[in-house]
Design a protein that fits this description.
The complex is a heterodimer of chains A (323) and B (514). By secondary structure, chain A is an alpha/beta fold. Helix content of chain A is 44%, strand content 18%. Chain B has a two-stranded antiparallel sheet with strand order 1-2. In chain B, helix 1 packs across helix 16 (353-374) and helix 3 (41-52) runs antiparallel to helix 4 (57-82). Classes of the chains: A alpha/beta (323), B mainly alpha (514).
């Protein structure tokens, strides 16, 4: 058995060596080399799944070999710093998101990279939206009732951590509704939801589609979602906007490259990535992850990143989390 | 009945070929790493962690668990034959086991430890199956105050029972607590002790600390001692099975050791070494052969082995039902589950029943596999001890570097591991134990998190700890333990003062050069 195992692992090593060797020569739409997609989170999260989906379809549909490279740490800044220093030849890309690009610039006093000048933002992929959940026992079903309740008795709310998107949304909602709530941070949303179910928390903010089970089982009431429009998967959950509060905060993902990438190559990558996410099969998978796909030009995407840094800065500063 | 049905379901899960193979790989690697002196299950699990990224959660968990208890089987081998514990917990087994080996009865000792480990493992499994469902349903209503009380109880219990060199132990726990504060503060988002290094914003990874303290420093120590790794004793296979009288004397100690181990292991913070030490101490008082203890008796090797193996299994109870790691390796298990988006906690049993019961059933399958690996195939492991360390240890360093690098694909982590390894080596020179440091490092940040969360939720009112029945009960138990520990320390101090003899300090460290 020991011998067999050894043989098996040797075979696996040989096979993977062959695979990478073969990948080297194959011409892709923009690079003959395999492309690395750097992910700012550990394997298994939504970002990682999107990156793997992209890598798989780049290879299968366009012959562009791609591998996912997880470099988690320090709110995505480790990965962003790494990518900013790589050659701008299209072989290193980053699955960009709000953590290193729109939150960290305000949150951290000094960043080793420039979120706009240090990158060429190539393609916007899509976004998922968080929302506000309260206990069914509270009897609250609309934002108006929520405001009435919270004015007299402040609620505790759980978030996935200081500086996370759910925390920023919590701050934004407090500001828009002119109320004050008590923020209780957790390491990720699952422990927060556990405490919410145990009755220790009055409310929490988290991605809405991921918690559809709780809504259906009557374990939580989703008061509002922070997307511009209602989510087709949960048509009963109203937006903040339609209840009279201009709160739109989305967790977006896109694809970016180190600064200075050739315009032709940028266009080629943009076109290929949009083609991948344009297919109905891939869109279904994105929807399952709670992400709504939107097509956007590279220029618009770059503008969006810059705009979001500006819009979110006061919220992050108000939350008292910038160092 | 419901538990039996669930267990049967779990058995079906674990008997699927894929899970069975990973169970075998786990226990095989565990025995392998356990036999190697100094490199414990912690390092083995940490090295395997990257490989589990590519598995489904159930086989990954079954494999990691297999490494964990497999190492306790293997740990006994080196401690009996060389008097060098393969794992920290096996140092207790070495007390009697090596004496037996010196008398030429190594075969009997090895056979007894394998049998005892098996018995202890089965007892631990039964305790998990019976206790977990009710604990999980109780924990559904656990608030942060209750979690805080559980962790405090675990830390205090661990400190109270491991009173060998109390001052050094406390110093190590505090060092661990301080290491644990590095990173972004969860409640305020302020960076603490990161010295402007972005890699430290998330704190130091448990695997890095564990690999440095246990893996790297062990290798450095072995360079100095430069043993050749050859063993004097050869196992006499004709004298492998215990005599009839010894067989009979094996049963009760296994039962006692397994029971003590189960309950000690289920407390967060205590772990196998303390379970083995407590069970051995208790057996020394009640055994009919107590007069011969210290000269090599069969119950003396059976008890600690049964205890450490059952503790290894029951450590999964708080880990999976509360999400509070029972021991440092369990912190890695939680980390592994989080990668799959599974948060261990009271809902794990109902949301992932196949995984939970598959794991419990894998203890049965794994222990049977281990019995086969460790009784008929013991010769392989004995031969493994003959590999010169000059080949073995460089390989281990390479594996450690690979394992650490693959955590974040960051070279910084490799350097940090090596630095911690050097610090760990210096600690060894001054006889500071790394285990309490790791315990403080794992449980300290968790306790701080729950305490501050409780204060946020109660709007700063500390009475909440006494108002909630669960936390009030747990805090009362903690107080009793503190009073008991203090009074027994005072009594022991008085006795030694009365006798005017220096205290007999048995060296229980897991070092190679001792």
């Amino acid at each position: 058995m020991k011998q067999n195992l050894k043989a098996l692992s040797l075979a696996a090593v040989a096979a993977s060596a062959l695979a990478t060797g073969a990948a080297h020569a194959e011409p892709g739409p923009w690079s003959d080399e395999p492309v690395r997609i750097v992910v700012t989170f550990p394997p298994g999260g939504t970002s990682d799944l999107v990156a793997r989906l992209l890598a798989q379809h780049l290879d299968a549909d366009f012959g562009q070999k791609a591998v996912v490279d997880n470099r988690p740490g320090a709110a995505g800044t480790v990965a962003a710093d790494y990518v900013a220093q790589q050659p701008a030849d299209g072989t290193t890309l980053i699955l960009s998101n709000n953590a290193p690009f729109t939150i960290s610039p305000t949150r951290f006093e000094s960043l080793p990279y420039d979120p706009l000048g240090g990158f060429t933002h190539v393609a916007y992929i899509g976004a998922s939206a968080p929302g506000l959940f309260v206990q069914p026992s509270s009897g609250i079903t609309t934002l108006a009732e929520y405001v009435d309740f919270v004015k007299n008795t402040p609620m505790t709310y759980g978030s996935s951590g200081v500086g996370s998107i759910s925390h920023i949304l919590g701050e934004a909602v407090d500001k828009a509704l002119s109320v004050e709530s008590i923020h209780v941070p957790y390491q990720g949303s699952s422990p927060a939801i556990q405490d919410f179910r145990a009755g220790a928390l009055d409310s929490f903010y988290d991605m809405v589609v991921q918690n559809s089970d709780m809504i259906e089982d009557g374990e939580a009431v989703a008061l509002a979602i922070a997307s511009p429009d209602r989510n087709p998967q949960l048509p009963d959950v109203p937006t903040f906007k339609e209840q009279g509060y201009d709160v739109v905060i989305e967790n977006w993902v896109g694809l970016s490259a180190p600064a200075g990438i050739e315009p032709d190559m940028r266009a080629q990558i943009h076109e290929t990535v949009l083609a991948v996410f344009g297919s109905p099969e891939v869109q279904t998978k994105l929807t399952d992850l709670g992400i709504t796909h939107v097509s956007m030009s590279s220029e618009d995407y770059e503008t969006l990143v810059g705009d979001l840094i500006g819009t979110w800065a006061p919220l992050i500063e108000a939350a008292g989390i910038s160092n | 009945m419901e538990i039996l049905a669930s267990f049967g379901q779990g058995l079906l899960v674990v008997l699927q070929p894929e899970n069975l193979i990973y169970c075998f790989i786990g226990v095989f690697l565990g025995t392998f790493i356990g036999v190697l002196p100094g490199i414990g299950s912690m390092a083995a699990i940490a090295m395997l962690l990257p490989a589990t990224f590519y598995l489904d959660p159930t086989p990954a968990l079954v494999m990691i668990a297999g490494v964990f208890y497999g190492a306790e089987y293997g740990g006994a081998t080196a401690s009996i034959l060389l008097n060098v514990p393969g794992t920290p917990a096996a140092s207790i087994t070495a007390i009697e086991g090596h004496q037996l080996a010196k008398k030429g009865r190594a075969g009997v000792a090895l056979f007894s430890t394998a049998t005892a480990s098996f018995g202890g493992g089965i007892i631990g499994m039964i305790v998990i199956a019976l206790l977990s469902p009710s604990l999980a349903s109780l924990a559904l209503s656990f608030a942060p105050a209750d979690y805080f009380a559980v962790i405090l109880l675990g830390l205090i219990a661990a400190a109270a029972v491991s009173n060998g060199g109390a001052l050094k132990g406390i110093a190590m726990v505090v060092t661990g607590l301080m290491l644990g504060t590095i990173g972004i503060d969860l409640t305020t988002g302020v960076e603490r002790f990161t010295m402007g290094i972005p890699e430290l914003r998330d704190g130091v990874h448990i695997v890095i600390v564990a690999m440095g303290l246990f893996g790297v420093s062990e290798v450095i120590a072995s360079i100095r001692s430069a043993r050749k790794g050859s063993i004097a004793q050869t196992v006499d296979y004709t004298d492998f099975y215990p005599s009839k009288k010894e067989w009979a004397s094996l049963f009760a100690p296994i039962l006692r050791g397994g029971t003590i181990g189960s309950f000690v292991g289920a407390l967060p913070g205590t772990g196998q070494t303390i379970a083995a030490a407590l069970a051995y101490a208790a057996e020394k008082r009640v055994s009919p052969q107590r007069a011969d203890f210290g000269n090599g008796v069969v119950p003396g090797v059976a008890v600690p082995e049964a205890a450490n193996n059952s503790a290894t299994q029951t450590a999964f109870i708080p880990t999976l039902t509360l999400g509070v790691p029972g021991s440092p390796p369990m912190a890695i298990v939680i980390g592994a589950l989080m990668i799959y988006g599974i948060t261990p906690g009271p809902r794990l049993l109902t949301e992932q029943p196949d995984m939970f019961w598959g794991l419990v059933a894998s203890f049965l399958v794994g222990n049977i596999l281990l019995l086969i690996l460790n009784v008929p195939l013991i010769g392989i492991w004995v031969r493994l001890l003959r590999i010169p360390y000059k080949f073995m240890y460089p390989t281990i360093i390479v594996l450690i570097c690979m394992g650490v690098y693959s955590l974040n694909n960051n070279v910084f982590d490799v350097w940090l591991t090596l630095v911690i390894g050097v610090v760990g080596y210096v600690m060894r020179l001054f006889r500071f134990e790394p285990a309490p440091l790791l315990l403080g490092f794992v449980l300290g940040p968790l306790m701080e998190e729950q305490l501050r969360r409780t204060m946020l939720l109660s709007r700063g009112d500390p009475m909440v700890f006494l108002e909630r029945p669960i936390s009030a009960t747990l805090l009362a138990v903690t107080c009793i333990i503190v009073i008991f520990a203090l009074s027994s320390t005072v009594r022991a101090r008085r006795q030694t003062l009365a006798q005017r003899t220096p205290p007999n300090r048995k060296d229980r460290s897991n070092e190679t050069e001792s």
